[in-house]
């Protein structure tokens, strides 16, 4: 009887798009499950994050509705994916949440399936948990090789928190005093380096981004003007705009402070000498913002090697990107270019 009742309940759940009629209901849902994240319950933020219109239906925000109550949701941020000479519609799935009182009914699976079964859209997921990766694998998602996040610690405390076992965390203040001079010495040397990078608006580097993307021979999210008008401009009071810098050699970087990080969202340098100059400028920005850490992604062994020479530390694992498409658009590929502002990171 209990199984039959659960099936009946699940059958009455509708998967619908976020729209004007669900604003108040979604606010109640978000307040319950993200009590410390005010932005989750604000209509303007949800419409911006999922790239929807100011009014009407938001295709990138799916809701599970049961008896005039929201019991689940999933985000599907629309993007364009380029693979060689072809450009496809794609979406990054994120923010999956099911009401605790309605779990075990398959609502989460229905939300994922509704998103992934859209016609001619490639569905992407980034760094899922092991459980989520298993579930997505069974649904037909395949893994693509990707870049590696690299970090440069100005304050080594966070690195020590990752490295020191939980039971021994009380000794971190002592360890920090021991290792801080080493990191301070490297930082003081690097910030005195020569640089010809100049701060600029993101609009001034779009042609350079287009040029770099034109020569990448494997899948990548398009960071064209349309994408940057959304992502780099940010949303007032919720998401800061992204800043840019460029050099005469054609190099560029897009960056902004976020929490304790100075995030470099996308970058390109033709050689190590240019990267050294970029790092000096980025480091000065990090110091100005009182950031504890610089974070970016390397997409090749050469980039990783260059960054290690500058003192960057690579994270334990590479970025994990899963993909699915009904028409198997990119199933023959095994790698994807990954930038730090792909997916919903820092939104």
Description:
This protein is of the alpha+beta class. It folds into 2 domains: 141 residues, Gcn5-related N-acetyltransferase (GNAT) (Aminopeptidase); 173 residues, Aminopeptidase (3-Layer(aba) Sandwich). It has 11 helices and 15 strands. The chain starts with a helix and ends in a 23-residue tail after the last strand. The relative contact order is 0.15.
Question: How would you summarize this macromolecular structure in one to three sentences?
Answer:
The protein is an alpha+beta fold and 347 residues long.
CATH architecture label name of the largest domain: 3-Layer(aba) Sandwich
Q: What Rg do the Cα atoms give?
A: 22 Å
Number of helices: 11
* Count of DSSP strands: 15
Describe the global form: globular
Name the helicity range. 25-40%
Domain unit count: 2
Largest sheet: 8 strands, mixed
Mean pLDDT across the residues is: 90
Segments where pLDDT lies below 50 for 5+ residues? 1-5
How much of the residues is beta strand, in percent?
Answer: 25-35%
Beginning-to-end CA distance, first to last residue: 43 Å
In terms of structural class, how would the helical and strand content be classed? Answer: alpha+beta
CATH topology of the largest domain: Aminopeptidase
Element layout with pairings:
Layout: H1 2-11, E1 14-18, H2 23-33, H3 43-49, E2 58-65, E3 70-83, E4 86-98, H4 107-116, E5 121-126, H5 130-138, E6 142-144, E7 148-153, H6 157-163, H7 172-191, E8 198-200, H8 206-215, E9 220-221, H9 225-231, E10 243-246, E11 252-258, E12 261-268, H10 272-288, E13 293-298, H11 301-309, E14 313-314, E15 321-324
Parallel strand pairs: 4-5, 12-13
Antiparallel strand pairs: 1-2, 2-3, 3-4, 3-9, 5-15, 6-15, 7-13, 7-14, 8-10, 10-11, 11-12
């Amino acid at each position: 009887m209990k199984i039959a009742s659960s099936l009946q309940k699940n059958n009455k759940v509708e998967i619908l798009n976020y729209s004007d009629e669900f604003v108040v209901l979604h606010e109640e849902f978000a307040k319950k499950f993200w009590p410390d994240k005010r932005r989750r319950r604000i209509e303007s933020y949800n419409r911006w994050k999922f790239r929807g219109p100011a009014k009407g239906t938001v295709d990138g925000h799916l809701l599970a509705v049961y008896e005039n109550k929201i019991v689940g949701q999933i985000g599907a941020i629309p993007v364009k994916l380029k693979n060689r000479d072809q450009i496809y519609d794609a979406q990054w799935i994120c923010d999956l949440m099911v009401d605790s009182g309605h779990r075990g009914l398959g609502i989460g699976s229905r939300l994922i399936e509704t998103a992934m079964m859209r016609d001619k859209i490639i569905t992407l997921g980034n760094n899922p948990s092991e459980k989520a990766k298993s579930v997505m694998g069974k649904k037909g998602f395949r893994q693509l090789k990707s870049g590696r996040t690299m970090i440069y610690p100005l304050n080594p405390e966070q690195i020590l928190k990752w490295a020191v076992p939980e039971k021994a965390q009380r000794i971190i203040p002592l360890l920090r005093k021991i290792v801080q001079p080493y990191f301070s010495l490297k930082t003081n040397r690097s910030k005195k380096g020569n640089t010809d990078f100049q701060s600029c608006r993101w609009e001034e580097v779009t042609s350079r981004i287009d040029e770099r993307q034109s020569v990448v021979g494997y899948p990548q999210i398009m960071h064209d003007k349309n994408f940057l008008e959304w992502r780099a401009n940010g949303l007032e009071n919720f998401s800061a705009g992204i800043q840019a810098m460029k050099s005469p050699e054609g190099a560029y970087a897009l960056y902004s402070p976020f929490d304790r990080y100075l995030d470099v969202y996308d970058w390109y340098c033709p050689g190590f000498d240019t990267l050294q100059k970029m790092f000096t400028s980025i480091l000065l920005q990090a110091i100005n913002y009182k950031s504890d850490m610089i974070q970016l992604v390397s997409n090749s062994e050469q980039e990783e090697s260059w960054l290690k020479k500058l003192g960057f530390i690579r994270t334990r694992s590479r970025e994990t990107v899963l993909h699915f498409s009904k028409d198997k658009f990119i199933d023959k590929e095994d790698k994807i270019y990954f930038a730090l502002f792909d997916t919903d990171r820092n939104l």
